[in-house]
Each structure stands twice: as C-alpha cells, then as structure tokens.
Amino acid sequence: MNKQALIDTRRRISPFVHNTPVFTSHLLDDLAGAKLSFKCENFQKMGAFKMRGATNAIMQLSKDQQERGVVTHSSGNFAQALSLAARNLGVTAYIVMPNNAPKVKKDAVLGYGGLITLCEPTIKAREQAAANLVAEKGATFIHPSNDLNVILGNATVAMELLEVHPDLNFLISPVGGGGLIAGTALAAHYFAPQCLVIGGEPMAVDDAFRSLQSGQIETNLTTHTIADGLRTQLGDINFPILQQHLDHIIRVEEDDIVSAMRLIWERLKIVVEPSSAVAFAAVLKNKAYFKDKKVGIILSGGNVDLDTLKFS
Amino acid sequence: MNKQALIDTRRRISPFVHNTPVFTSHLLDDLAGAKLSFKCENFQKMGAFKMRGATNAIMQLSKDQQERGVVTHSSGNFAQALSLAARNLGVTAYIVMPNNAPKVKKDAVLGYGGLITLCEPTIKAREQAAANLVAEKGATFIHPSNDLNVILGNATVAMELLEVHPDLNFLISPVGGGGLIAGTALAAHYFAPQCLVIGGEPMAVDDAFRSLQSGQIETNLTTHTIADGLRTQLGDINFPILQQHLDHIIRVEEDDIVSAMRLIWERLKIVVEPSSAVAFAAVLKNKAYFKDKKVGIILSGGNVDLDTLKFS
C-alpha cells in the first residue's frame, strides 16, 4: 500500500465512475457552526460509492479471471454495484441474495445484468451458495468491504473531495462494513496529512466503535437501525487500516439520523439514504468539537425505498 | 419587449441567483425515448425559480420605491422569494398570508426577513390587506406571475438552459399563474427560434389550456391537485405572451404527476416539488410526439413538506 496505488486506482476507474459534485449550504453551515462540504455519492452511477470499489476489484482481476466472472452475496448496494461494474467491463456477475429480499432490490440487480442465485436468508446459506458458484463457475468472490481493491476504489471518493478542498480539517464518513471509512482514511493519510478522519456509526450497531476500543473485531447483537447499509461488521483487511489511520468514531442515535437526513433532503434538495446521513448527524451532535472547522462529509448513497419512507 | 431586455435582465440579476445545474440520465432517456435535459431550479436560492422574477422586479424599482418596500400576497414560494430577494437588496418585504397558512411556510418567510400580515383566507381579504400596505407604507405591490419584470426574471431559467443546450427541439415548463411559461416562451423566441415551447398543466386546474382555446382568461373551478404551485390562473400580462409564443399545453392526471415525481426522486436523486414533475409527466404521456427529440424540462422548485409526503 502506497500513495501511488491510490493514484493508479483513480486513473484506472475514472472512465467508469462519476467525479461526483460537492455541495455546500450557508444555511447548514450556520446550523452546524462549521464550514461543510458534502461529497454527493448519491449521484454516483447506480446511486452509491460502492460502484467505485466494485469497478476497481473487477479491473484488477486477470483476463482469465474476468472471463470466468465474479460473485458476491449482498442484498444491498454492492449487489447492484458489482452487477453494473461487471456489465460495463464485459464480465458476468453472479449475485447471491436471500429469498426474502425485496422485489425492488432483485429488479435492480437484474436491471444491471446481474445473475441472481436465491438462497435461504441465513449467513451460512449465502456463504454456501457463493462457494458453490466459485466452485462451479470458477468465478472470483469479491467481498463488499473487506477487500483491498474495493477499499482502494472507495478511497477515490475522498481523493476527489480533497482535490477540490485540500485544506479540510476533518473528513467524516459513515462506518458499516468498513470499506468506505478505510478508503477515506487512506486517502487522507496520503493526500491531506493535516486532516483527521472520523467515522459516524449508529449507536444500535456500534461494532466498529467497540472494535477500536477492544482491539479486536466485535460483532453486532442487533441490526435495529434505519441506516440499513451500516448493519455489517468490520473485516481483517479494513480493521488494521482503521486502527492505524482513523482518529475516532462518533456514535449517533436513530433520531439524530432521521433529523440529519431530513435536513439534507430539505436544504440540499437531494435524496440520500439513511446511512448517508449518519456522518452529518455526527457533526451536528458534536458542534463544539467542529466549531469553525472545515469539514468534508461523505454522502455515501441515495438508494431509498420511497414506499416505506416516513419522516414523522 | 426585445432580446436586449432579456440579456439585460440576466446580467442584472446574476449576482443574486444561482446558474443552476442541468442534469441528465441515460435511464430516464431510455424510459422517455428522448434526450432529456433537466434544468434544476430546485437548487435555486430559496428552492425555486421564483427567486429570479422577485429579484428582477425589485431591482427595476426606483431608489425611492425601494426605500418604501414591496408587498405581495402569497402563501407559497413567491412569498419566500420576495422576502429573500428584498433582504439581499436591502429592501423591506411585506407579505400578506392567510391566517390558516401552515406554520412551516410562515416560518420560512420570517426566516428570510419578510414582515407578515395575516388576513382571512379569502381573495378579497388578502387583496384588501395588500392594498392597505400599499396605502400605509407606500410600498409597491408585486404580483407573483402577472408582472413583466417578474416574467423577464423567470426567462433567465430557459436562457441558461439554452446556453448549455442551444439545439433543443422542445422546452417544457409547468403552467400555473403563467409567469414561468411566459418567460420560457420569450427566451425560446429570442434565443432558440427552432425550439417549440410547451406547457404542462394538471387536468384538475386546466385554466390555461382552456384559456388558449377560448381566447380569454378562464378560471379554475377547483384546486384539487397535488401540484400546489399550479392552482393559480393566468393574468392579462402573461396571457398574450402565451397566445403568441406558446405552441400548446399538455394536460396530465394526478397519477401521472406522482409517477413522474417519483422517477425524478429515484433516478435523478433530487428533491422536487409536485409542480416540478408536471412538465416531465407531460413528456412521458406523449412519448410518440417527443420520440428521439432533444427536450429541455424545467424543474421549477424543490420545496416540499416531508411530513405529508406519501408516494403510495
């Protein structure tokens, strides 16, 4: 891992991803008492930053590996990201999904050309189904967050933001499986050493916060958070990066997340998913700490189910 | 009225308004069978195009008039637009609102520095209250849509869009009080004579459609549309412009509006108000007519009440 690897990654994937816009708002600055820059990955292709890591991971495979396809298990954004990234690169994507996954998520994967294998909704069943595809098709398994090439791809979010605002005091991104925050931490380490990287995590699934305290990867006892992209846990590849380069994690309550999401929708006029609002919620909860600082906030994605959305 | 008046207007107001971005989507292009360019006035200051007309109307007053303030009656976007535009220009804005206006709308006006006068929720009461302010304060009444300087300010939306996409075949904007569509029609007339201008109007409040048929200004019998910005009727200043320069109006049902709004939220990942979706709904309802054409769609604003929002 070195600075050049990040530069190479950005050059590699740039034809296949958007350099997403950075939004600002005087009103939200006044509210937070800080100078905020929002990196809008909700406008990324397929609607989330995961397009970056998926693209990079596939591009780093050998021609031979690419011909045999890629496989992952996910019912969320990574399933869609791998499907679209694979299609863009002429590669077959096999997606293992639980048989109780919402139709809208299955349709999205199919729309991007992914081939779905349904399984029972247990971790064991989905790992078995993925292993079968690896064995039968010779496909390469790609983990949504605990994969170095995925992490490097995700690092390009912060690289782009730091290119526009090189003098940020803080960079904040949500913490789920650890792939985005690890990439963010690497980008700041190499391109903005003055910039502290902070994670935002829902209190209800604070495995990463506890992992950093205990020094070992902790698990979540429940998944009861509206931030459905953050229910997963860290892995052995991203955890050491966080131990080395992350300053700390701020935990937020469910009400904080909904309030922050509402402010983003109402004031920035953009659609972001609950997971995206966690980083902004962390700033609003610690105004004194961020007072008058330049803060980069990564809005990770914008895929929401409008049918179930309720703000009150 | 001439081309130079539009050019002067744009130069005059440009320090006080955003040149809003133009969004595109391959997915929505495929769905519509046309090449769509969305002009995003939801990102305009205070969240709607009305900021443009309000700013221009105030700037065209004499110094003496400006010192005595401006007045309007509105419970919607124009009340906020006039308040903010006035504050930006150091002018006092008196806003007449019905006493049953939602608190969120009153708070928005107050937040932009407008001085509210409450009245009974009848047309007669609000006209009387506005007349009183004109008499007492010497303030100048500014109509939200039936005012030439407001129309010229609104024309800058289409001017900006045509600067980016000069070769549009069609320009479509929603029709309410007629201020936006009249400005759009003037802009196309002077800057893109090849471009036909079309209005989108809810079937439930199709006064403008009927006015163009009958040759006189018609009224609405009900205001039963989700597109709350379009319940008003044309005026004697904008109607002749529409008679001369508008190609035709497409009427859409309530379901069409909600579906179009949903597509914009889900695919463009932006928050637009129902009125904004009417123009896109008109395209989706007439796919054969717009097939393979370059279509500019004006998204008029993004001020929605998330508490009452429901897609299903």
Notes on the protein architecture:
2 copies of one chain form a homodimer. By secondary structure, chain A is of the alpha/beta class. Chain A folds into 2 domains: 3-48 and 147-299, Rossmann fold, CATH 3.40.50.1100; 51-141, Rossmann fold (3-Layer(aba) Sandwich). Chain A is 47% helix and 15% strand. Chain A contains 14 helices and 10 strands. Chain A has helices at 3-13, 26-32, 50-59, 63-68, 77-88, 103-111, 123-137, 148-164, 179-191, 207-214, 238-245, 254-268, 274-285, 287-290; strands at 22-23, 35-40, 70-73, 93-98, 115-119, 140-141, 170-174, 196-202, 248-252, 294-299. In chain A, the strands form 2 sheets. Chain A has a 6-stranded mixed β-sheet with strand order 1-2-10-7-8-9, with helices on both faces. A 4-stranded parallel β-sheet of chain A has the order 5-4-3-6, sandwiched between helices. The termini of chain A are far apart. The mean pLDDT of chain A is 95. The A-B interface holds A 21, 42-43, 47, 262, 265-266, 269-272, 302, 306-307, 309, 311-312 and B 21, 42-43, 47, 262, 265-266, 269-272, 302, 306-307, 309, 311-312. Chains A, B: GO terms for molecular function: ATP binding; L-serine ammonia-lyase activity; magnesium ion binding; pyridoxal phosphate binding; serine racemase activity; threonine racemase activity. Chains A, B: It holds the Pfam family PALP. Chains A, B: This is Pyridoxal-phosphate dependent enzyme. Chains A, B: Keywords: Lyase, Pyridoxal phosphate. Chains A, B: Residues 13-301 form the Tryptophan synthase beta chain-like PALP domain.
